């Protein structure tokens, strides 16, 4: 078998795992499951490397305890922490977050979920787990995962909505209407787009899992003004600057170039059209 074929063959991971199993002083009872997990969640070459380094951790530490291996990986093989933690957490062998940031984020998520009124809490718990699963899958595939702070903001929105609909007499998510969501969004128009993004995600998940029969967030939108909305110079001020930058000898050439380029960059397509008509391109034969 050639080198590229060997590196991409699923047999490579199995052979690597079997070889290291004979060399380890004690084979973990989760070793076969770990091999299968890597085959389905990681590229073959990456999975084989993870097998090798995990086996070396077991030999060096003399332990098969997940917490011990994660602690050692943090110090010696940081890239191995994620595949190990992913496997241990998926198989309920180790539920402790792997970093201080993860631990703090997990605590904040739990606080937000616990703050939701009990009748409304289970779908929110399922939503939080789905967001974390999406994050893990994206990381495994080399994509850009959701940031922990983004997940926290989504749960903030759902928690606040839970308070709002409870005050309106709702005891289940299934009874929430589009009018209820519109009333919630009206509480803070400046955050409408951000809140609506969280509501769309939550109700899409709730509808997919059967917690609600329809998605009340579907008809809603958050129109946003396009274009630059900051402070700009008046036309008279712009004309003054234009004459300054267009007059040879009055300003440094660098200032004139940057100024004129900025004016052209700020102009709209409609404003550029007269310039192109004033200075037509030369004819070529």
Please, could you describe this protein's structure?
- It is a single chain.
- With 285 residues, this protein is mainly alpha-helical.
- It folds into three domains: 3-90; 100-209; 232-264, no CATH class.
- Helix content is 66%, strand content 0%.
- The chain has 14 helices and no strands.
- Helix 8 (121-140) packs antiparallel against helix 9 (148-167).
- The termini are far apart.
What would a concise description of this structure say?
The protein has 14 helices and no strands.
Count of spatially separate domains: 3
Q: Report the structural category.
A: mainly alpha
- Any low-confidence stretches, pLDDT <50, length ≥5? none
Determine the fraction of residues in helical runs and give it as a percent range: 55-70%
Write the layout of secondary structure elements.
Layout: H1 3-8, H2 10-23, H3 31-41, H4 44-61, H5 66-76, H6 81-90, H7 100-115, H8 121-140, H9 148-167, H10 178-185, H11 192-209, H12 235-245, H13 253-266, H14 269-278
Keywords summarizing the entry:
14 helices; 66% helix; mainly alpha; 285 residues; single chain
């Amino acid at each position: 078998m050639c080198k590229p074929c060997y590196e991409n063959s699923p047999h490579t991971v199995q052979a690597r795992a079997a070889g290291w199993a004979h060399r380890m002083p004690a084979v973990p009872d989760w070793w076969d499951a770990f091999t299968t997990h890597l085959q389905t969640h990681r590229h073959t070459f990456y999975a084989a490397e993870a097998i090798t380094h995990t086996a070396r951790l077991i030999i060096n530490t003399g332990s098969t305890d997940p917490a011990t291996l994660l602690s050692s990986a943090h110090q010696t093989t940081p890239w191995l922490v994620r595949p190990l933690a992913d496997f241990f957490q998926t198989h309920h062998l180790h539920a402790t977050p792997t970093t201080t940031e993860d631990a703090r984020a997990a605590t904040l998520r739990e606080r937000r979920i616990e703050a939701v009124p009990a009748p409304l809490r289970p779908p929110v718990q399922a939503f939080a787990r789905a967001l974390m699963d999406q994050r893990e899958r994206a990381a495994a595939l080399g994509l850009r995962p959701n940031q922990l702070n983004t997940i926290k903001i989504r749960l903030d929105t759902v928690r606040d909505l839970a308070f709002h609909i409870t005050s309106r007499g709702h005891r289940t998510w299934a009874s929430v209407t589009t009018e209820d969501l519109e009333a919630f969004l009206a509480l803070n128009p400046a955050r409408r787009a951000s809140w609506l993004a969280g509501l769309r995600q939550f109700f899409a998940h709730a509808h997919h899992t059967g917690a609600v029969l329809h998605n009340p967030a579907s008809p809603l939108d958050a129109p946003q003004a396009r274009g630059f909305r900051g402070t700009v110079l008046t036309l008279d001020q712009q004309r003054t600057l234009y004459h300054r930058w267009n007059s040879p000898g009055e300003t440094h050439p660098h200032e004139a170039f940057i100024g004129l380029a900025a004016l052209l960059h700020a102009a709209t397509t409609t404003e550029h059209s007269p310039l192109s008509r004033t200075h037509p391109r030369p004819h070529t034969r």
